[in-house]
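A quick word before the example. In earlier lectures we treated sequence and structure as two separate objects. From today on, think of them as two lines of the same record. Here is D-2-hydroxyglutarate dehydrogenase written that way.
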Amino acid sequence: MTPEQIKQAIEDLIGTDRVRLDGEALDIYGRDWTKIHTPRPRAIAFPRSTEDVQAIVRFARENKIALVPSGGRTGLSAGAVAANDELVVVMDYMNKVIDFNPVDRSVTVQAGMITEQLQKFAEDQGLYYPVDFASAGSSQIGGNISTNAGGIKVIKYGMTRDWVLGLKVVTGAGDVLELNKGLIKNNTGYDLRHLFIGAEGTLGIITEATIKLTRPPKNLTVMVLGTPTMQDVMQVLKAFQSQVDLTAFEFFSNNALDKVVAHHQLQRPFDSVTDYYALLEFEAETEEVMDRAMQVFEHCMEEGWVEDGSISQSEAQAQSLWSLREFISETISHETPYKNDLSVLVSKVPEFLKEVDDFVAETYPGFEIVWFGHIGDGNLHLNILKPKDMEKDAFFEKCHHVSDKVFAITQRYAGSVSAEHGVGLVKKDFLHFSRSPEELAYMKAIMQVFDPGNIMNPGKMFDA
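And the structure line, produced from the sequence above:
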């Protein structure tokens, strides 16, 4: 079908002014934050309800048209890129709160709700949605669920999966399923909800989600500590975890700090310069908690694990210290980074990071590396920056070979080639480093059950 025929057919189903074919829309809604693939969608559809989505899916299945679900388009694995003449299903207009239950402390929202809007809604009810990351101002709940997003609070609050009480989905077969219905306990066979969490739109489209909320944290306090080595960072983590209930534990290299400070004209946390920095956050609810934290800090200084440190004295200072970590991704985006999102057991982080660092430095000495990540849960972000005199295509081609070796190292450490960003187009050729042939066979079989026509985000995660 031509784009014009698709537009007419879909608008006959869900209403006028719901499909765009103009070049601006095709470019905006056909891509995500990755820069590797050129968007080439056929048309862009804007549903307003689950019924609209179901009508689109049934139409697409009948006419053998591939669909790409599109949320906030903040993904880093090209999971929302439409590069092969697909019909993009944009969730931007499905952004309403459907129901709130203060007794159950749960809220049901449409999948297009912005993460920050959900956080603000929870705050207005005296509650808290703890899944948080740099893209919270533009990422959408459906996309977060589809990639099982993690972020900066995982060490205490877990991944997105841990906060999803129920889902409404439209499968690739065109059926509407209500999964788990917000229950805490539901021991009635397979929990299909969890298949859709992290499925990257390959089984169907999430249209609504029931999300668990919790109490807001009190008096969050932030420390940034300068450490000589990665092993020292791990000693600091161990020392603080033994005495303080941490809500976050992040790390970044001095290279990352230099770039953020220069780009955003921020102040360094202290005058001393160290190779690595740990950012930790905790609830200083009482003087006793603060005293314990300061005792641990002094112990780390005495042991030589920490050379200098800074602690927030107000909410504004806490946010200022967080900016040193949260602005890294945006800062390096101006230098065309090749990003890898890896995880290993927390105890293996220092030796794993050194082995990867040594490999890239020896093999491609002209490549600049920027490290940061959620080290409290073993999640490392390896960023290789494009040399100024290298063409983008040549750079990404070289990095593809780098990834092959880096993922082989990751496999030896029994780690994951994608900790929180998903697989998409970027990682699908490397999935075998983290999944066995048997696992992949079962995953493909599951996909065929939910999407027998292979129309749901085809080519993402793996080829059918």
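Notice the following. The two ends are 23 Å apart (CA to CA). We will return to this example when we discuss secondary structure assignment.
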